[in-house]
Amino acid sequence: MSLDHPLTLGIETSCDDTACAVVDKAGRVLASVVSSQLNQHRPYGGVVPEIASREHLRNWPAVSHEALGAAGIELQEIAAVAATRGPGLVGSLLVGLSLGRSIAWGLGLPFHGVHHLEGHLFSPFLRSDGQHAVPVPESFEGLVVSGGHTSLLEVSRGEISSLIETRDDAMGETFDKVGKRLGLAYPQGPRVDLLAERGDPDGFCPTKPKLKKDLFFSYSGLKTQALRAIERLEQETKLDVSRIRRDQDEVPQAALDLLAGFRRAAVGQILDRLERRHNVRPFQTLAVSGGVAANRLLRRELDRWAGRRGIDLRLVPLTFSGDNAAMIAFAAVERQRRGVSPDPRDVVVASRIPFSRNSQ
Ligand code: KG4
Ligand code: ZN
């Protein structure tokens, strides 16, 4: 395969995955390595920030070595460096950003500090088969659904503005909390999704939040209703939650039905907001990304919904739905293509970096 130089090295350490990738000028992913810290955090049921930063430091040498090896290149062949500068866990971000800045400094290369959501936003244009990326349109809308975000954003010539945000919990966080209440292991979202495939969604029909004029996402009401329903189920059926923990076949049907109803409501809310927005300003290209973009029902429903309306739907390839460094490198490749100047090498991390609000 002929490489399209220059090559960009991507680094992502905003939460609990240590990731390094190499992407060429055409958006070809030459290597994308993600080292998960799941085993370190699992005993605590969630990510422990202190452990995460320590693990990033420990994992980096092996992860970067593996990425360069898989790409078949030496570090000296890299022409630009990109690292996530936020939002995320400050200690974890500091590790990746400092590594990226040091490499750029040491080799005299341009450096890009990339917003984590900017990475997710462009990831649906990446291909998982080693081919060059799909050309990114000048303007598109992006839905980012993850453990920390539920955002509909607009990208226009690289400028990002927010259209619809969650007022409370993020979609992935809600999946995690409901799954945790059933004793499922972290991260609970993919497990809830898998179990919900076997349930009858009519077994649990939560009420929907009322919307006024403003469009927003809200998941705390659904979460509370699901948690109460689990409690009722336990009382009525004397359900043994520890049986569910094993993720085995014997999960009671009533629990599967509950999860199916919960998932349908969670996905339904996304479709409802997209439809309302589409009726006001039709989508042309909608790029869907983030960990929750792996959700089976969400993918099926979006596919059908967008197909009927003639919308160019870009669903992130499953390999790049969760946090990864290819998306960070690719966001920087896109910046370079648009002629954006690199960031100063002393750019700092930020735990929160809001986009401008766009209320059109
Ligand atoms: O993008 P990501 O890897 O990290 C963040 O930036 O948050 O997303 C992780 C989130 C977790 O909440 C995880 O439970 C959720 O994505 N997730 C899912 C599925 N796969 C991952 N939620 C629902 N269904 C899935 N299949
Ligand atoms: Zn993410």
Describe the structure.
The chain is of the alpha/beta class and 360 residues long. The chain folds into two domains: 7-128 and 319-359, ATPase, nucleotide binding domain (Nucleotidyltransferase, domain 5); 159-316, ATPase, nucleotide binding domain (Nucleotidyltransferase, domain 5, 2-Layer Sandwich), CATH 3.30.420. The chain is 41% helix and 18% strand. The chain is built from eleven helices and eleven strands. The strands form two sheets. It has a six-stranded mixed beta sheet with strand order 10-9-6-7-8-11, with helices on both faces. Strands 3-2-1-4-5 form a five-stranded mixed beta sheet, sandwiched between helices. Strand 4 (78-86), helix 3 and strand 5 (111-115) form a beta-alpha-beta unit. Helix 5 (171-181) crosses helix 6 and helix 5 runs parallel beside helix 7. The model has no long low-confidence stretch (mean pLDDT 93). The structure holds 5'-O-[(R)-(carboxyoxy)(hydroxy)phosphoryl]adenosine (KG4) and zinc ion (ZN). Residues 15, 146-148, 172-173, 175-176, 187-190, 193, 290-292, 294-295, 322-323 line the site of 5'-O-[(R)-(carboxyoxy)(hydroxy)phosphoryl]adenosine.
